[in-house]
Amino acid sequence: MTLSIDFTNMMAGALPDGLGITETEWRGSRSAFAAAHAAVDAQRANLGFLTLPADEAALDATLAVVARTRGRFDDVLLLGIGGSALGPIALRTALRPLAWNTLDLAARDGHPRLHVLDNVDPATILTILSRLALDRTLVLVVSKSGGTVETMAQYLIVRDALARAVGEDAAREHLVFVTDPEVGALRRIARAEGIPTLDIPQNVGGRFSVLSPVGMLPAALMGIDVKALMAGAADMTARAASDDPAHNPAGAFAVLQWLADTRHGRHVQVLMPYADPLRDIALWFVQLWAESLGKTRKDGTFTGPTPLAALGATDQHSQVQLFMEGPRDKTVTFITVRGREAEGRIPSRHADIPELAYIGGHTLGALLDVERRATAGALAARGRFNANIELDAVDAWHVGALLQMFALATAYAGALYGINAFDQPGVEMGKNFAYAMLGKPGSEAARAAWDALPHPDARHRV
Ligand code: PA5
């Protein structure tokens, strides 16, 4: 079981025109990384994601909920947004068979479907509700703060629908809250009504919470091997003991992206799996990288590479044109799975048609691999930085390792950029304006600030 990163095509030797990270920069980054590593270590007590893989009590509590609910529900409906939703979606896509929710019970091995309401679009929510048999649905309300407006709106709608479907008393049997152990509206409701609740440790932030019950509860309900996930994450955490990026994959990823951004103008950082099951991990990564690293420093300077999700080979017919010939402001990190050469033999047919004849006899796995290598080589030939994260398999162990690698890399990158990767002050102003417009008590100042802003001008509408 291995996860490794090949970063040859980030380096000067592999790129033309003097482009690429030099060996001197790479070796010279060692002291910067050692300092970042020490800074992350010094914050350990606040960085609960570091110890989640070893938190057996949390996993046991999660598995106890799974055991209690086994066989009672055909559907799990997860209410949440941002870090409370993207991890569960990524785990379902990566570790359950394709189109999980369309499979019958036997194909799902008796496990429920998972629906995630990661938005408040009425069309989606009302459609999903109209399709669910609520008497056979378990509702997970997932919110670290326990008061996020989107999640609370989802909750109010779904709780009402549950009460109508099964009655007020029985509705409680269909609910599990995943939230802060002490504070927040969800915690208060849980206490008042005796609703089963799992804790998100106070020192685990939303986007770093996938290995807490936020991700582990829906994963375990769907029958994913959560112990293997944790083992993979624990292995990555152990590798992160090294303060030498050459021996710490999360450190290497953070340092290379940071050097590429700050020294080489590669401000856009693309994550491009060549494996369909990993496509939603790229979206999870985008939130993690963007919300953690996009910051204004105390001195007024701005920081933050822009993450972008892509999918190989699909995006070779889309975004790769931009990556190849657009501004040289990007890195592309592929994720590939080793040993797929035997998968999906392509039949030899139309031997007389040259455009098809050469394809027959290869496999889809080999085609995907060749296409990735060809794209990487072409990008490098044009001076485009790229790297490849290689996994032995898409299984729970490797996904756990991958998720923990990105979480660690984000923490290191925060330290390298000299910012706090664990807050998100930039989303507050918009939230406060929304609260003001919805009439939330205590929003008077935000209302005044909102009213003072320029509002749509009829001259500027076409
Ligand atoms: O990473 C974060 O902190 C955010 O993206 C949150 O996950 C998101 O805002 C949802 O917050 P909460 O879990 O408190 O409802």
- Count of spatially separate domains: 2
Return the CATH topology of the largest domain.
Rossmann fold
Biggest sheet, spatial arrangement of strands: 1-12-11-7-10
Bound heterogens, unique:
5-phosphoarabinonic acid
Helix content: 40-55%
DSSP strand (E) fraction? Answer: 5-15%
**Under the CATH scheme, which architecture of the largest domain would be assigned?**
3-Layer(aba) Sandwich
Q: Total strand count, please?
A: 12
Q: Give unreliable regions as ranges.
A: none
Gist of the model:
By secondary structure, this protein is of the alpha/beta class. It has 17 helices and twelve strands.
Please outline the helices and strands:
Layout: E1 3-6, H1 23-42, H2 56-69, E2 75-79, H3 86-95, E3 113-117, H4 122-131, E4 137-143, H5 149-166, H6 168-172, E5 175-179, H7 185-193, E6 197-199, H8 213-221, H9 226-239, H10 249-264, E7 268-273, H11 279-293, E8 295-296, E9 302-303, E10 306-309, H12 319-325, E11 330-337, H13 354-357, H14 364-381, E12 385-391, H15 396-417, H16 428-438, H17 444-452
Parallel strand pairs: 2-3, 2-4, 4-5, 5-6, 7-10, 7-11, 11-12
Antiparallel strand pairs: 1-12, 8-9
Helix pairs in contact: 1-10, 1-15, 2-8, 3-8, 3-11, 9-15, 10-15, 11-15, 16-17
Residues 81-84, 143-145, 148, 151, 205-207, 291, 424 line the site of 5-phosphoarabinonic acid.
